[in-house]
Task: inverse folding
């Protein structure tokens, strides 16, 4: 039985004259893994920010389990939506364990007084939090590094830690913004397993990714965002077969044979589009710096080379 | 130790002075002994020069400092001779501590020589002892520069950058406690000596600072400071109890109540800095008007002190109630300022708090009955604040304890020690909790913190209010210590603490986010203007230069926040970031072994 966890109605986000997200309707059901793809600058991250309250949508509403969410990030997290960021935003000078403990903020209550008085209640709550955090660290395989500073972790582990931190808030829905950006194929595979394991815990997942193989392996449903508008939505097969998607990625009408829609071809097209996108991502990025948004040209570059190598590997 | 042989060619590279290593080591030792000996000679003929350096066989003032510098140089010099029982002093067998301690003696001796010449007008005022000191103290510097370079290929910077240190061995808990005790005792002696330097003897104090800076720098390069910090972190309770005990002992070592007065003021300054550290160091909010909270607390306590100049002269609260009044007033003021401003980020917050700080001072100045209602008596302030009386113990009177006569300021020193202990406890407990973690998270990345469910505004307001009420607590004691309150000290920048700039500097200089950092920073920033009266108008300038130099060479402050997990030091991953770049080949520094 599937019930909608997240429902976005008619979400529009305008920055001055630029409409980054245009009346998007979107649903995530419980127990689902949903993919969100689209070329660079399509508005995927902006859409995430609208969902999590980092941006106040110009129009439209977002509801979680039937209740309309106020556009305040901490209330959204409190309600049960957790997220990661495209350009990793860990608390760099805190330890791995502390990062996860911060993630538990909404599920604990101890205020200043109990911290100062250190009663038995406080100690019990701290112990419990730590136990929960350690459980999560074991789940993602970082338990041994609990006392390392987050900034000293290798890139892949930082991404994992961000996921653990998000899970610490015991969400019903997890939003992942390019969780495999910059990872090698093995790490990507491991992340795939991780996402499945998260789903098996009963947490719905919405994931943005440029790695098509990752997306199509993983997702029950995929939505394609192009220039702020939702172009197609459906199962992997439907999306892969849709010529508009390919065209959107290539930026020109697709003239090949749409019938078979080999994944490899889509991927090749995707990789090229990304290589171009990486260059054109620059101005988009500079526009963003004023705001607490997240899109990093560097991540994109890493990602596109990564995608290239994946494609090559497959062609052989 | 196995890498010694592989790195032998690199190790052979000597410093800028071309001398064989054996000669270099000899130079260091001979020079150090010479420096020590020179301290027992007469350096000048007249006792006009501060400290009386005229007596043979009896070191005084700067000579004592030269003596200490010489002893340190000798000790570290001897570590290069492979003296077994000294090996712990320099586990990395690095040459940079030798150079730095040699420089400490050199700086003291040459500074003294030059100061005598300038003060008394001419080289004729130097006795042979001074020439001996200057010559002898130069030898170890030359020698140290001929020793193997600590990080070949990095030039002079190699000496200034901290070497990679081998992991410390395990010691028994008893040894560790003894080490802590010795360390605290040394710190007490050092501090007592510094505070005891006569206010007119600026030369001696400058020598003291020179020695302290170079010696501490050298000690840091040996890794002894890190090891001490690790050890103290292992025995946190013991170390804090000892430090507290040392502070209690301090007034007993003083024959003069004046130094206790200095101690009280340092503690007031330090507790306020610690409160500011919650706001700046933990939460990352730049507050440039923080001293206003100290003022609010002081004024609130003064108004209910029973002083006949208070607007409410009939009201005489007992101390606990006065302290609570001070805290509450500051808390309210903090929330009033924080609520509208904490939605701002970064620079805006700094500017707005700066404005509010000034508004407080100007308002207090104007509430004099002429420009506004008479509450604070304007620039005259509230005077004749009676001394505190706690449980029948009058803090204004001298008391005899164990045969020691403890004056008024010693009494207040004890009271302030309790207040400091409370503030330290509040700081450490708050920092290590859910709320403290959310402060740090906000400092690290506010967007990510809110996305983790932290109500940024609320949490920042709590930090602001807590910081304010701690300052208010300190203020309520300060009003009584100083007998009076007036608006003048509560400004943004001034020549003497407390003012917002100095408070902020105490936090930044000492080390943000730490407990001992602001305590140390406050002591330094209080003592320097107090002892170097001649700076007067140039004080702010000198202060600015000192800050720039410090931020250039040690941006994390004197005490780096190592975030508790020092036991993970062997992985090098808790190392201070600025220092990792220079020594990319960890094996090299060990090569001298
Ligand atoms: N705060 C902002 N102010 C102005 N424009 C913005 C802001 N945030 C995003 N944009 C613009 O919205 C568009 C969508 O950006 P977004 O980051 O959502 O793309 P994306 O789909 O996540 O791309 P990528 O795959 O590169 O991450 C871009 O043109 C970007 O410049
Ligand atoms: Mg994006």
Result:
């Amino acid at each position: 039985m599937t019930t909608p966890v997240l429902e976005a109605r008619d979400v529009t986000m305008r920055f001055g004259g630029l409409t980054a997200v245009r009346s998007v309707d979107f649903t995530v059901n419980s127990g689902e893994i949903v993919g969100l793809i689209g070329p660079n600058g399509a508005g995927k991250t902006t859409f995430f920010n609208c969902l999590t309250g980092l941006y106040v949508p110009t129009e439209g509403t977002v509801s979680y389990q039937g209740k309309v969410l106020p556009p305040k990030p901490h209330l959204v997290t409190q309600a049960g939506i957790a997220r990661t960021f495209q350009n990793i935003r860990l608390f760099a000078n805190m330890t791995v364990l502390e990062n996860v403990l911060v993630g538990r903020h909404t599920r604990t209550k101890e205020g200043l007084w109990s911290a100062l008085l250190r009663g038995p209640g406080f100690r019990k709550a701290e112990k419990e939090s730590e136990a929960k955090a350690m459980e999560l660290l074991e789940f993602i395989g970082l338990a041994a590094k609990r006392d390392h500073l987050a900034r000293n972790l290798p890139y892949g582990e930082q991404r994992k830690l961000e996921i653990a931190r998000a899970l610490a808030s015991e969400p019903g829905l997890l939003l992942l913004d390019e969780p495999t950006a910059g990872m090698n194929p093995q790490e990507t595979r491991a992340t795939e397993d991780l996402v499945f394991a998260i789903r098996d815990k009963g947490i719905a997942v919405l994931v943005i990714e440029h790695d098509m193989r990752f997306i199509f392996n993983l997702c029950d449903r995929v939505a394609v965002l192009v220039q702020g508008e939702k172009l197609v939505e459906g199962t992997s097969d439907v999306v892969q077969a849709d010529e508009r998607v390919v065209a959107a990625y290539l930026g020109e009408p697709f003239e090949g044979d749409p019938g078979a829609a080999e994944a490899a071809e889509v991927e090749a097209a995707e990789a090229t589009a990304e290589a171009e996108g990486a260059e054109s991502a620059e101005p988009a990025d500079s526009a963003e710096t004023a705001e607490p948004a997240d899109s990093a040209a560097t991540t994109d570059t890493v990602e596109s080379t990564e995608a290239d190598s994946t494609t090559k590997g497959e062609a052989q | 130790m196995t890498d010694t042989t592989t790195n032998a060619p690199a190790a052979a590279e000597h410093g800028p002075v071309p001398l064989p290593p054996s000669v270099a080591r000899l130079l260091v030792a001979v020079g150090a002994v010479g420096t020590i000996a020179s301290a027992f000679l007469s350096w000048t003929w007249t006792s006009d020069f501060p400290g009386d350096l005229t007596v043979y066989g009896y070191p005084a003032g700067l000579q004592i400092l030269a003596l200490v510098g010489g002893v340190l140089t000798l000790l570290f010099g001897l570590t290069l001779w492979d003296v077994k029982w000294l090996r712990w002093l320099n586990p990395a067998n690095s040459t940079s501590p030798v150079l730095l301690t040699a420089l400490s003696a050199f700086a003291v001796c040459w500074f003294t020589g030059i100061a005598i010449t300038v003060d008394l007008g001419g080289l004729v005022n130097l006795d042979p002892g001074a020439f001996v000191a200057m010559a002898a103290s130069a030898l170890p510097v030359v020698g140290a520069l001929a020793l193997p370079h600590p990080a070949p290929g990095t030039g002079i910077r190699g000496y200034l950058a901290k070497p990679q240190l081998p992991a410390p061995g395990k010691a028994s808990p008893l040894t560790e406690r003894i080490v802590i005790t010795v360390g605290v005792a040394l710190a007490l002696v050092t501090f007592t000596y510094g505070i005891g330097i006569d206010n007119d003897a600026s030369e001696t104090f400058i020598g003291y600072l020179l020695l302290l800076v170079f010696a501490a720098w050298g000690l840091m390069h040996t890794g002894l400071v890190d090891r001490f910090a690790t050890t103290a972190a292992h025995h946190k309770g013991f170390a804090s109890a000892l430090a507290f005990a040392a502070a209690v002992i301090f007034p007993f070592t003083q024959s003069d109540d004046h130094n206790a007065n200095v101690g009280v003021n340092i503690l007031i300054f330090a507790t306020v800095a610690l409160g500011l550290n919650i706001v700046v160091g933990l939460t990352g909010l730049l507050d440039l008007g923080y001293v206003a909270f100290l003022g609010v607390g002081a004024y609130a306590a003064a108004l209910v002190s029973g002083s006949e100049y208070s607007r409410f002269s009939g009201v005489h609260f007992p101390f606990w109630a006065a302290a609570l009044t001070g805290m509450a007033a500051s808390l309210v003021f903090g929330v009033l300022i924080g609520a509208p401003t904490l939605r701002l980020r970064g620079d805006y917050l700094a500017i707005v708090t700066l404005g509010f700080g000034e508004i407080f001072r100007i308002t207090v100045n104007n509430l004099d009955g002429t420009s506004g209602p008479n509450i604070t008596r304007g620039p005259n302030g509230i005077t004749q604040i009676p001394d505190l009386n706690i449980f029948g113990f009058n803090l204004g009177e001298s008391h005899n304890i164990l045969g020691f006569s403890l004056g008024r300021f010693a009494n207040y020193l004890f009271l302030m020690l309790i207040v400091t202990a409370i503030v330290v406890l509040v700081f450490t407990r708050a920092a290590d909790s859910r709320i403290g973690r959310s402060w740090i998270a906000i400092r690290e990345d506010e967007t990510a913190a809110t996305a983790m469910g932290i109500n940024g505004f609320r949490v920042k307001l709590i930090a602001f209010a807590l910081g304010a009420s701690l300052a208010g607590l300190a203020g309520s004691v300060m009003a009584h210590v100083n007998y009076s309150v007036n608006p003048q000290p509560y400004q943004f920048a001034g020549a003497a603490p407390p003012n917002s700039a100095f408070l902020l500097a105490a936090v930044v200089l000492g080390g943000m986010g730490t407990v001992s950092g602001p305590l140390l920073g406050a002591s330094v920033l209080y003592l320097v203007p107090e002892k170097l009266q001649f700076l007067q108008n140039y004080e702010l300038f000198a202060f600015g230069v000192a800050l720039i130099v410090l931020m250039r060479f040690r941006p994390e402050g004197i005490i780096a926040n190592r975030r508790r997990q020092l036991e993970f030091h062997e992985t090098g991953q808790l190392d201070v970031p600025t220092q990792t770049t220079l020594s990319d080949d960890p094996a090299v520094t060990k090569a001298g072994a």
